[in-house]
Design a protein that fits this description.
about 675 residues; alpha/beta; 4-stranded antiparallel β-sheet; 25 helices; 16 strands; about 10% strand; binds adenosine-5'-triphosphate
Amino acid sequence: MYRKPREANANPESTEKRPPFADIRLGVWRLLVAQEPGFVIPGLGWNISPMKLSILRRAFSDVYAISTPMFLGFILTHFWMAIESPLSLYFSSRLLFYIEHRIVGGAAGSSPPTGLYWATAARIACSVLTGVADWAGERQTIFYGTRIRYHFQERILEANMKRDLPTSQEAETSESPDPSSVFVCVQEACELARSTLSLALQLRLTYQVLSSGAKNAGPVFVALCLLPVLAPAFMQSNLWSKSYIVQAINPHHVRKMALNKLADDDYKQEVLGGGLSEYIMKEYHDACKSLGGVPDAPAYRLYSLSKNALPDIFLSVCSDLPTFYFACLAIFRPAQLSLMHIAVLEQTSMALRYTFSLIVWMIATLPKLITPVESLYRVLAIENQVKDGEMPYPTEGTPNGAGMSINVRNLSFTYPGSKSTKDAINNVSFSIESGQLVVIVGANGSGKSTIIKLLNRTYDPTSGEISIDKHSISSYRLADLRRATANLAQDHHLFPLSIAENIGLGHPAMMADLEKVVECAQLAGAHGFVEKFEEGYKTVLEPASSASLSFGGEDNEDLKKELKKIERKIDVSGGERQRLVASRTFMRLISKNIKFVTVDEPSSALDPQGEYDLFERLRQARQGRTMIFVTHRFGHLTKYADLIICMKDGTVVETGTHGELIGRNGEYAHLYNVQAKAFATESR
Ligand SMILES: Nc1ncnc2c1ncn2[C@@H]1O[C@H](COP(=O)(O)OP(=O)(O)OP(=O)(O)O)[C@@H](O)[C@H]1O
């Protein structure tokens, strides 16, 4: 059954504090309506706090700083639009006054008064200036708006680019700020100011014009014009200015929705294959029956449903009150009314109501428009969790071509927000000398990738210390460390750029050297398939979407086909993708700055030969650099390793060379034998 809005305390235990939201049941819905802090005008939804005002001030100062001349032009246009309506009204009333005087006064033979010419010229000038202001306003919205959007797009991109991974994973940074929000908000605030000024001038003028005829008619008329706009705010509940969550809680409705979804293509195979249609239809029918007519109309409509027709009748009559009032004046005080008064009444009653409703609407929406601006500024100000050091890397005196030496002591780490009760790695210690080849082995989840992430300073450890060339990793400048590191990871991505750029970005300084790019693609085994593309190395594999179909074009088959053609993407297999990413790493290895290379299982989709070749070529490209491999298929690598780190459940259980660890017959020997056995079985 439909139930009237009933507001309940969302948090029954707290009796002193205001609950953060009202909990309301409506039809099949549960509504959680935020009780927002700040100054609220009842019924109008005006809710603005000093914090929001300071954001608005900052938005204005930014918009002003982006282009002062454009800002001044923008303000001027709005100022004209504010005074235009009352000015036009004033000149219209003067014009009518002279027209009436001439027609009714019977002055047909005499020459017209100069005031008539002036009023006509002024009225025409107003119209011309309004045309100019409309044209300028439109251009300002597009060009000034675009300039402001570009400015904030760039700042957002810059902030996102600099943000480190742990900070990016915080909920606050996952919101995507809207670069248009600042201009939209400033525009709305200007329009609010403009409408308020316009309303004040309109009221003043109406009051003056009408009071000059019928005594006291001005204030009464104005009050009657505004009443129909104000009354609904106090008489009708609505959700349009409120923040709320709508949740379907009626179990029969929820089941109906779930069953309805089973018609989607995703479930086709199971539903058709399993012959489930009959069961689904029966259950759907039962759910509808159990719902028993409880309305599922949108919650906002149920919320504003009145108990009886009285408010609607009152509001309807209210909108005719100004006309009734003038009818009364015409009956009881006909001498005080003129043609001019009637014309002004006609024009102003509509204009006043429109401007006032606009203001009511804008004061309710402005705080909502400030919210995205607030979140934009918040996102721009977020500081990285991984703090930058000050020491340059490599330090003075480090021999050219020497790899990084690494010392790890009592390292522990838990991922931020992890629900696990165990550390990802716990009390890990090991040392790697400059130029060593290291292989980290261990079962799934044993902490191998986590170690790589800590060595690359993607995260900072929870406790323990990492030293690079005898100094704490956190004392070095992050940009220097990144410049000295090449990292080929398992979660690799292609950029929505050309293949040449995708590879060249490994070493941007040499990006223009296509020969080097091709050489690197050959090393990673990517050249063969890249050659086959029509556009070769210029091919863009994952282009950013650039076309869209208009709403009206949905039923135009030719347009739809054309869109498909435009959007057609060239795809590659998972293994080919891995080869392209590996090509980028070979490109990076050209740089003499690289002193540390990490290779974390980048070969899951490669065929055995591809994987073998990749590891061999990476190993050969080492040239004195320190290199760490993480891989499950380590048989062909560990025999070359200077150090094998064997991990289990987040701890290092063994370290040594292949021979030493096999001799120890522990965890490494166990993993190695499992692989060898599987291989022997496969080859039999
Ligand atoms: N982003 C993350 N958030 C929370 N926990 C994580 C995250 N990444 C990894 N873990 C957890 O940390 C532990 C170590 O994971 P890690 O990825 O380092 O293991 P691994 O040895 O590299 O595993 P695999 O061989 O499967 O790649 C695991 O228990 C894993 O569930």
